[in-house]
Structure formats: C-alpha cells, structure tokens
Write a structure and sequence with these properties.
Number of helices: 5
Strand content: 5-15%
Order of helices and strands: HEEEEHHHH
Length: about 130
C-alpha cells in the first residue's frame, strides 16, 4: 500500500484496518510503531541502532528482503514509476515474492497461478482509467 507519509496518524488506521487484532506485530524501533500493543495482541521490535536484527522470532528480515528486491527491480528494470501507479508495481512484486522458488513455486506453476487470476475478467483501456 502506498502512503503519503509515515506518521503514526497515517499508519495506525491502515494497520488496524488490515491486520487482525489477534496478531502479534514485529517491527523495527521506528517511533510510529511505539504503541501497537494497545491495538493488537502484542508488539515486539528489534533495535537496529544497537546492532540487533533478530531476537528469537522477532525480526523484520522478511519485509526488508521484499523491499530490497522491489527497490532493485524499480531501479534496474522499470527505472521510473509515477506515484499513481506505484501500488500496481508493489502488487506485482508481492505476487512474485509470494510465488517464488524459495516458497516452492516454479515458473510454470507461477504462470498458471497468474492466468487463473484473470479468468472471467476483462480489462479495457476505457475501464482501466489508469491514464
């Protein structure tokens, strides 16, 4: 999801709308996540500034890995993306990340998953309204 800023007042409503209250949230030490325990089952974080990146099950390595791949793809393949289309690029990289070889999904199966998702859908230039 693309957001305009990283303020608590911007992020917290989005997190509350998209994450189950029963979830335990793991983040880094960023201040905007400071009081997440009040809205979720729990919250723990790592202190990157102190050289801590993993403590038991607590880490942000998965999301950092995703964004590393996303940023390399945006710089190396697409090179430019207007803000109004950024959510589409993020969704494409999310699909690729969730359906990658490390998760047991090979190229043919990934293609089949993508094709199943378009069955019964028709997107025309006029209906897309993306330009």
């Amino acid at each position: 999801m693309v957001v305009d800023d990283l303020k608590t007042t911007t992020l917290l409503p989005i997190l509350k709308e998209n994450i189950a209250k029963e979830a335990v949230i793991y983040t880094d030490e960023a201040g905007q996540y400071r009081n997440l325990s009040a809205d979720f089952a729990g919250h723990d974080f790592t202190r990157h500034s102190a050289g801590e990146y993993v403590r038991g099950d607590v880490h942000t390595n998965t999301i950092e890995g995703y964004f590393s791949i996303f940023k390399r793809g945006m710089k190396g393949v697409y090179q430019h993306c207007a803000k109004k289309h950024l959510h589409r690029y993020a969704a494409e990289f999310e699909f690729r990340y969730n359906n990658r070889r490390a998760n047991g999904v090979e190229d043919v199966e990934r293609g089949e998953i993508a094709l199943r998702a378009v069955v019964g859908k028709r997107l025309t230039y006029r209906r897309a309204n993306i330009f």
